[in-house]
Amino acid sequence: xxxxxxxxxxxxxVLLLLFIGWETVAIKSRVPDWLLPTPxxxxxxxxxxxxxxxxDLLSTIKLSLxxxxxxxxxxxxxxxxxxxxxxxxxxxxxxxxxxxxxPIIVLAPLxxxxxxxxxxxxxxxxxxxxxxxxxxxxxxxxxxxxxxLKHYMIMAGASNKQLFWKLELPYALPSLFSGLKxxxxxxxxxxxxxxWLGAKDGIGVYMTLASSSFRTDRVFVAIFAIVALSLxxxxxxxxxxxxxxxxxxxxxx
Amino acid sequence: xKVSHLTVSNISxxxxxxxxxxxxxxxxxxxxxxxxxxxxGSGKSTIFSLIGGILSPDQGTIHLDHQVINGKRGxxxxxxxxxxxxxxxxxxxxxxxxxELQGKKEKEEALEMIDIAGxxxxxxxxxxxxxxxxxxxxxxxxALLSPQSIICLDEPFSALDELTRLDMQKWxxxxxxxxxxxxxxxxxxxxEALFLSDRIIVLSNKPSQVAAEFHVPFSRPREESLFxxxxxxxxxxxxxxxxxxxxx
Lengths: 253, 248
Prior knowledge:
CATH architecture of the largest domain in chain B: 3-Layer(aba) Sandwich
Structural class of chain B: alpha/beta
Number of helices of chain B: 8
CATH superfamily of chain A: MetI-like
Distance between the termini of chain A: 16 Å
Oligomer: heterodimer
Number of helices of chain A: 11
Helix content of chain A: over 70%
Shape of chain B: globular
CATH topology of the largest domain in chain B: Rossmann fold
Largest sheet of chain A: none
Distance between the termini of chain B: 38 Å
Number of strands of chain A: 0
Strand order of the largest sheet of chain B: 6-7-8-3-9-10
């Protein structure tokens, strides 16, 4: 914990300096609020409008968690399937890469046309954003399994199932977690984009309303909320990683 | 007729056009300590892969008691050259792995063996917290606790420094003399083979065949002082020349 504080003050200081600079420039040059509000005004709006904003925030949190969970399951299952069945890997892997080349912004309206405004198109958007880093990271992890350990396991008579559960999966954990960290932050972005498609509430809806009514301060409140949420998800994943992969952290010291 | 515990009869193996083993035949009796001594590149590891069932011989059979185990895995317990402990498991969990792969786990027994092996206090440590010699001890305990009746050791001490190796050889003997099992030990070190085994099988160069076989006459328990006795040196010379002959 002390280490976090000792290391954490530097980025915080930079952020603070950035805000002070922003505030001074905005006041000195008399930029109108609808163009660029000062940080104090943004915090003021965030504080005062909290009751109004809170339901949207909660809705986005729920949506991203749900999407992340789905992305995790699909991403991991895809990785396991591709790992265990090499002939499928060769034929499907290019398809996975293509799935990441289609811009979500273009795909999103199509999904609404096909699936309506319900939960399904939103889940598709978030999952599409989330599963890929998980699949790639897990696949790499499985592939990197030490040959030495594999040789021992096979000589000792491990079945393929045992080889996977007792060796390959735990071996891939550190790698898998790098994928999870990326996906966790992407899930918030995915959720916001999916809310633009049309939703009753959520940060995405709040953002669209704010920008169309030139409430730039609110747009910034939404941006800060997204950043904070991403950081929070990221830290939760890091904490889980520390607990699950503690044998490795000890080794690093 | 009495059947040996492990019977390797006239097996041959070639990779592409490269003949690695040709008409290799030997037996190992129950609770016997047999070393396979051969120049490097004589296909020692291939022999283990064949007995372990990773590879199938092109010709010949491998019997364990009455059963043919050609290409079948899970009949031997194994200790490789490197400790190969799983880094995310504590020592006791690692030591239990051999049993776990075959079904049942007996933690009490494992803790007892860890204690006997001189690793008391490290039950819940992770492998990276142990020295090279300690890791190899854990690796041997893992093989010893596995339910299979024969243990194959593949040059287990070759990566250790001289002093640690001598300690480990003495340690291995003391444990084995208390907990007899059938051991097949691969090495390229003549002294090691002489000090540890009941019988030494000398392999020829590729393609591998049995070039010579020696019954080691020293009584047990064996002491470190054995290394310097005239008879030991005499044997060492004898085996050295038989090894040298195969190299030519």
